[in-house]
């Protein structure tokens, strides 16, 4: 990360997370029937929802998700109970999205890459070096035209996006060598998310192989040498203890991770207006806090990862320029028609609008 934020913010927010998490007692969930939801749609009803994600319970993402459940219960005066399932208990991210669409899972937290298996037009969020700073991402999120197109894509697939979670910039770890030039990818077998654009991006780098495996299996895959590299935001590299099975961390910032709290639109409509407002309000508020915590912690995480024995390097501007130029020439154009839902000019225009906000 070119400009790492103060570590004091990380410590302060972690105290907040710890205090709030200590007040939360998760109850045994009511298992949803595959035939559909049973919640009544009136102001006197109580609703219990299942929310699934793939992260460990000591990950800030889990803690912020539990905060959403806590606040939604508070804002709904106890009418809305959300039971949180961590560690892929309800499935990997692709299974979570599919479960939400089918109404089997009430809410699923999923990164953009697995979502593109169901909504291909969202592949642009996975374009390498499209988002180049947090400030840039915030301008994108505040753009009514871009966000309007995003929401339309979700609505057309019977999904409600409760909120966008900033996942952070993705960095590369490996057990071969530091990544300082594109030539250093020679001999690298890197695990990537299940995203066609991500896979094609790295396969366009000579000497690089790509693999896909479930996030829950990645540690053992690295440990056993099935793959020798992976890429994730710093918080995931730390919480999943990848530093135990990887020697090198290269700060590349090559992809920016966006995640979504997705809910089946029909199930959302079954909630009372009070419950809906409580859920949306809780998600939006916690996402702001999560964003502050995520980037405030990075300096601290780098110190910890270095203490754990990782060799850390930051790539040069020349590396970024070469990577971005190569991808804009070979990868971006191939997906313009997908981004534009079949219209290449529409897709290219959307990418240009995003780039113009830098």
Report what the structure shows.
There is one protein chain. With 358 residues, the protein is of the alpha/beta class. The chain has two domains: 7-119 and 160-165 and 259-296, D-Maltodextrin-Binding Protein, domain 2 (3-Layer(aba) Sandwich), CATH 3.40.190; 171-255 and 300-355, 3-Layer(aba) Sandwich (D-Maltodextrin-Binding Protein, domain 2), CATH 3.40.190.170. The chain is 44% helix and 16% strand. It has helices spanning 7-22, 60-75, 93-102, 112-115, 134-141, 144-155, 196-203, 218-223, 234-239, 265-270, 273-296, 298-307, 317-330, 336-339, 344-355, and strands spanning 47-52, 80-85, 107-111, 159-169, 171-174, 189-191, 209-211, 229-232, 248-251, 256-264, 311-314. Helix 1 packs across helix 2 (60-75) and helix 1 runs antiparallel to helix 11 (273-296). The two termini are 17 Å apart. Residues 1-43 have low confidence and may be disordered.
Tell me the number of helical segments per DSSP (H or I, 4 or more residues long). 15
The appropriate CATH architecture of the largest domain is: 3-Layer(aba) Sandwich
Specify the helix fraction band.
Answer: 40-55%
CATH class of the largest domain: Alpha Beta
Strand arrangement within the widest β-sheet reads: 7-6-8-5-9-11
What's the oligomerization state?
single chain
Q: Low-confidence spans: pLDDT under 50, at least 5 residues? A: 1-43
Note the beta-strand portion.
15-25%
- The average pLDDT value, as a whole number, equals 88
CATH topology of the largest domain: D-Maltodextrin-Binding Protein, domain 2
